[in-house]
Every structure is written in structure tokens, then in C-alpha cells.
Request: fold
Amino acid sequence: MGDDPRHGERRRGRAERGDASGPVGPAGPGGAGHPDRAGGPGGLGRRRFLGVAAVGAAGLAAGVTAGCDATSGAGPGGGPTGGEQPDLAAERERPGNPDWRIRSAGPPDAVQGYTDKASVLPGEEFGLYVSTTAPGFRVAAYRVGWYRGAQARLVWRSGRVAGRRQRGPRLLPGTRGVRADWRRSLAVRADGWPPGAYLLRLDAEHGHQRYVPLIVRSAHATGRTVLMHAVATWQAYNAWGGYSLYRGADGAYGTRSLAVSFDRPYDTNGAGKFLVYERALVVLAERLGLPLAYTTGVDVHRDPSALRGATAALSPGHDEYWTPEQRLHVTRARDTGTNLAFLGANACFRRVRLEPGPSGALRTVVCYKTSYRDDPRFAGPHGAPPTHDFRQPPAAAPESALTGVFYEGYPTDAPYVVHSADHWLFAGTGVRRGDAFDHLVGVEYDRVTPQAPTPDRLEILAHSPLVCDGRSSHADSAYYTVPSGAGVFATGTMRWVEALMAGTREDGRDHGMDGRTGAFVTRTTENLLRAFAAGPAAKTRPAPRANVASVYGT
Reply:
């Protein structure tokens, strides 16, 4: 679930909340101000702890409340255009540009921007919309990757563009959504841009900078490991203009947006959720030299063939908001042999709908949550699915049927405790049963919940005791396979991707995770990605040992 850094909850470390610069509030996440800790009628927060012993099959069948609560052209190096699949192996050998980081964000209105497409194919044009207090600005497009440790390469740079201060946020009646509705500042064609995750850095002439994220998606996924970027979740937490899917300008749940638009900048540094929950995974996957493909959850929603032939699909560290179509297409991919990895917690938790915006289709994320009965599409004659938690009725479909684990709570901070030390995922880590890695479980977690829909043959790999909101529970990492041979792994903790850089100078605020934890998570993730890249995991790796009954005594 994460948090919403512009409002009055107790702040978590700046890296976890997605703010790479700026002040850090009092330590300790959660508290009464958390986005879903809302009081009053209809404001029951999903962070309220779910006592597993008190949850029966009948309750789950009815739906379970969650736990605790103007320039374009090719850049340096050139490359193919149009929808071709460039040679990413050659791309990885290029030198990087370590100057990709923001040096000065400045005031919130110093410079900010957004694109009119969340993703593009190589060679496709997109619009960039910028507001700045400076007389001019330039844009630098950096592709994120390993690049011999530089972690990004400058692919394109614009000429000077005249700056202008654009209009303030536009609040939409009915849904309390916010749009920028700015004039387009420049058109950019992604000629020579290899597929990948990009940070467009806006460099204003007064020295301040901001990111605009963009995915250049791959033309196909066949034979590749697909990074499925969680753009709907980025937008759900985006509080630009004072509103997100969690709270309104007054900080209250009851005044939150019911629909949020991609036609506005992201708050804070412009790319906080990507930098915290996805960047380290991109860097590692690129360093391993695996055949990769890039897409977004929105593209998987739009295109039933987006994952066709993929060896694996990766859900990053915080991937909460899915459409039913995305879930269907991911499930079909699993059932035809695509391995799945959920490298966070709280994945596939909220059911959303995508609607058009002024810049095109699929530009609005709709999620009424506890007010789903007020959704005119739900109440209308065609009866659209409710936009609330997947596990809740009507149309209850708990996420554990896909992920293997069941989201339970927030906030927690606990050691990650190894259970199946001899599992192939832990090969080369040297771990023994009971070994613990401090602070790796947090700030949200999942567990295996036998009363929930759970795959038949599922193995718990880590079983980590914790306390959430004063009550004892566990977080679990789990693995299962299906008849197609696909393997599915879930970490059960939101800090997994962050931990890939723990103990290094890249880790930001690492929540106390050390280099030992970073080495363990890195080696385990390498084992996972290499195995999943080889095809259906059940054909090359030992079958999971069903141990849920022995672990939980059921």
C-alpha cells in the first residue's frame, strides 16, 4: 500500500516513501493519518489487523478485509526505429552517464512535467508538458540499466525550450480527480531509444530539476523476461494538486479522489515510486544479461498478447493496483508457461478501471474503494465490476489465487527468517534454517493464509514472525508451480527490491538493512531470474514441497 508523503501520517524513511530529497519526518510509519486509516462511516481502513485465527472460510468466501491496516531525433549511438526490437545485449555494453541524478529539486513549482503516454514503442512520438518558473529548460532522456555501474545512459538531449508557468491544478467535480490540462511544450520522437525504463530529466535554467518517467516498451515478449512496471500504482499515490486515491487536500480519506489522471506531473521528485520499488530490479536484470522486455501494467491490460511467449513476468516492489483484464492476462500467461515473480507485497490488491483522458485512452485510474456503490458505472445498467479490493464482495477474487500469498498488514518492521534453507532459490547464499535478516520484512507484508484461496502445492520458503499494530503474525515467502510448468514466487515483503542495494552507497534510507542482507537478496534474486529465464521452472527445478499444513498446523 505504501504511503502518501504530502500528508500528515507518520513518515517512513525517505527512500521507502519515494522521496529521494527533502526533509524526513518523525520515524515510524503508520498512525492515524495513514491513507486507509480513515474513521467515520464508510471509512474502515484496510490496515486494521486481520487476526488469522479468527478468519474462517466463510468470511473469506464473503470477501476479507485486509490486515493492519520541441526537439526530437536520435540520441548518442543511434539505433533502430519504429517497432523493432533493438539488440539490448549491445546496448548493455555502452558506457553509462553517472550524472543522471537530480542535484537540486528546488521548490515544488520550480520545474515539473508529464507525458501524454505512459509508454511508447521505439520510434513513437509523445508529447511532453512542462511548467517552470525558469525562462527556459532542456530535457535529458536517461535509460536505466547497469552500464558498468553508472546505472543510466544518456540517450537523447533536447535543445533549449522556452519556459512558461502553466495553469494550476484543475479539480474535476464528481470524482475529485486532478488534471493539469497544460499546453504541450514539445513533441519528442523516441528514435534510437532502445526498450527500457527511462527517466526524462527536466533541467531548468535556474538550476532546479525534476524527473518524468517513461517506459519504452518492447514490441514483443517472446523468449524474454518481462519487467511489468506498475504505473497505475504510481498514479494512485500521486498527490500532485493535493489529491490522490488516499486523501484530499485536507488530508481526509473522505475527500480523496475517486479517479486519478495520468495527465498531471508526479509529486516529489517526479519518479519516487519507480526509483524506490523498481530501479534496483531493472539494474540487476540488465547486469545479468538476460533477454529482457519492458512493458507496463496498463499495456498488459490493453493487449492480451503483451506477455505472449514470455519466459517470465516480474511484478516489482509495489504493484497494488490492477485491472481485471491485467489479472486475466497475467493468469493466462502463467497457465501457458510464463513464470511469475511478485517481488514486493500487496500486489494485485485493488481492482481498478481505466478510462480515457484528454490526451487519449487509458489515462484515468478509477478506484472508488469503500464508496464503490457510488460509482455510476457500477450502479448503471451494464453493471461494471466494483472498483475496490479484489478480495471483497461483490465479485470477490482474493489475490492469493494468483500470488500464492495474502496481503495482511501495515506497518511492520521485522527480520526475514529462512525456513526452507535447501530450496534452489537460496543456492549459494549459505543460509541455514532460522537465519534472519534484520528489517527485510516491512513496511507491508503478505502471508500464506490457508483459509484463503491458495494453490494446492505451495511451499513456504521463509516464515518470519512479526508484530503488526500490536498483534503477532508472520510474513511468508512462497513458491508454487502449475500444470503448464510455470513457477510462481512471492517475496511477502515490500522491501525486497530496496534490499538489492542495501549496504551500498546507492541504498538511500535502507531501514537498517545491511550489506549481508543486500548480498542475500541479490543472490536469491539472481537465482530466481536465471531459472525463470530458462523457461517453465517446473521443467528445470525441483517441485515445491507442500508444507503449508506443517508450518501452520492446518
Summary: The first strand starts at residue 111 and ends at 115. The radius of gyration is 22 Å.
